[in-house]
Amino acid sequence: MNVRYEGSETLAMGRAARELGLKTGEFELAVQLDEVGTVPPGPGDASGRRRVPAAEIERLQGERGFPDTLRERIRVVGATEGAALMGIAPGRFLRLARAGCFGPVRFYVNRYGAIVWQYLAAELSAFAGKECSLIHGPTPPPMRALLCSGQDWRGRLWRSRRVAQLVTDADGSWAVSAVIAAVLPPEELAALVRDPAERVWLRKLRPCLSSAGANTTRTRAAVERAETAEEFDEVMWYRISLSRQLDAARREHPAPALPPSAAVPPSGAGTGSGGEGQVDEPTKTGKAVDAQDSRGARTPVEDRGPTSEFKGDVRGLPAPGTVPSPRARLIRARTGPGAQSPAGTRPRAAVTGAGPARHGAFLTRRARASSGRARVQSPSFRKSPSWTTETSSLPSRS
User: Fold this and answer.
1) pLDDT value, residue 7
2) Is 42 left (phi over 0), alpha (psi -120 to 50) or beta?
3) What is the pLDDT of residue 41?
4) Which of 398, 392, 396 has its CA nearest to residue 111?
5) 17: nearest Cα among 57, 45, 77
6) Region of residue 25 (phi > 0: left; psi between -120 and 50: alpha; otherwise: beta)
7) Residues paired with residue 9 on neighbouring β-strands, in sequence order
8) HEC per residue, the chain
9) According to the model, what pLDDT value does residue 252 have?
10) Residue 289 backbone class (left: φ over 0; alpha: ψ -120 to 50; beta: rest)
11) 306 burial type by CB count under 10 A (0-12 exposed, 13-18 middle, 19+ buried)
């Protein structure tokens, strides 16, 4: 359906891609690179997606060599194809990319959970024509030192390019703040934005940074790693930018307040302190602890000194630790004084891994094999089988 925006006819994204003969991914990249101009949705558009003016479609269709010329401007290549395009080895191409000589425009995650960066073929050709010394000459000492220190500028350059694209299309200071906040680590964002309502509003306005699929846990972790700033100077740059932008956004209008159901509970709520008939936990120093009666009045408890034991509250109720559990009562009944052993059976001693059993104790074969060593029971200590998938795909040396 065609919609008019400020007196001109506009097309939806899907129809514009069909008119230009581009696939969905190609058209999305063309919009990100500003090869195809877009306008905000109209007032009556419920989808909220940007639209393409019909005049823009006519301009692109009128170019010589359409649509091959448009496809060539947005063609992306990987590391192997990019190295062949520049006439260098893949290893040298990787070093140049890590050093930040050129940045990627998109990425995807392969089946092994690794990030595969893609570059514009036009940018690689332009770089090869200008920097012949870096292409065929020796590596400069500063670049060699940067590579030896483990620096990798591919993710940083992609994030800066993507943030600049989204900031250009953002509408309002809060939308710009949400774009910058999208690349900050969660702990850095929580430390900078203390108001929960502002964090919720920024999360609601957060744009989609990449179209890489996140179907599995490994893929999702790789996408988050690519979208999140890591180095200290990069994090500080985005923190300063977000702080300045938030000041402008707060002057524009405050963030919407949280609904009552999503309000943060006050400090101490739900912890048992201040409820009716409940007693605060005694301190380790043995200081006097106030109890609270049914009328809500605080009643002081006598200070028994640092070595005294807290027996209960002022109404004579026993403390939780003084009441034995059902399992403890059962063990005490079986092993305590006067316990009767069934006829024809031998008393069994408790078998632990702390040391050898007492003389006369009955040990099964499994207990004898495991005595004297600790057994790990938590499943978190089990070895993850995910590494077998990655190593099994490696070629053998034979």
Assistant:
1) 54
2) beta
3) 82
4) 392
5) 57
6) alpha
7) 4
8) CCEEECCEEEECHHHHHHHHCCCHHHHHHHHHCCCCCCECCCCCCCCCCCEEEHHHHHHHHCCCCCCHHHHHHCCEECHHHHHHHHCCCHHHHHHHHHCCCCCCCEEEECCCCCEEEEEEHHHHHHHHHHCHHHHHCCCCHHHHHHHHCCCCCHHHHHHHHHHHHHHHHCCCHHHHHHHHHCCCCHHHHHHHCCCHHHHHHHHHCCCCCCCCCCCCHHHHHHHHHHHCCCCHHHHHHHHHHHHHHHHHHHHHCCCCCCCHHHCCCCCCCCCCCCCCCCECCCCCCCCCCEEECCCCCEEECCCCCCCCCCCECCCCCECHHHCCCHHHHHHHHHHCCCCCCCCCCCCCCCCCCCCCCCCCCCCCHHHHHHCCCCCCCCHHHCCCCHHHHHHHCCCCCC
9) 92
10) beta
11) exposed
- pLDDT tens-digit map of 70-129: 999 999 999 999 999 999 999 999 999 999 999 999 999 998 889 999 999 999 999 999
pLDDT over 90, % of the chain = 52
Residue 286 confidence (pLDDT): 38
**Cross-strand bridge partners of residue 119:** 77
Q: Does 260 or 382 have the greater pLDDT score? A: 260
Residue 16 has pLDDT above 90, yes or no: yes
For the ranges 160-164, 299-303, 323-327, 361-365, the one whose mean pLDDT is highest: 160-164
pLDDT in tens, 259-268: 776 555 444 4
- 24-32 helix and 13-20 helix, angle to the nearest 10 degrees: 100
pLDDT at residue 355 in the model: 44
Structural contact between residues 77 and 36, judged by C-beta atoms closer than 8 angstroms: no
Write down the pLDDT at residue 328.
61
Q: Give the separation between CA 289 and CA 282, rounded to whole angstroms.
A: 6
With beta carbons less than 8 A apart as the criterion, state whether 288 and 301 touch.
yes
Q: Mean pLDDT over all residues of the chain?
A: 75
Q: Token pair for residue 127?
A: 């770089």
Residue of 348, 349, 355 lying closest to 374 (CA atoms): 355
The answer to whether 163 touches 183, Cβ cutoff 8 Å, is yes
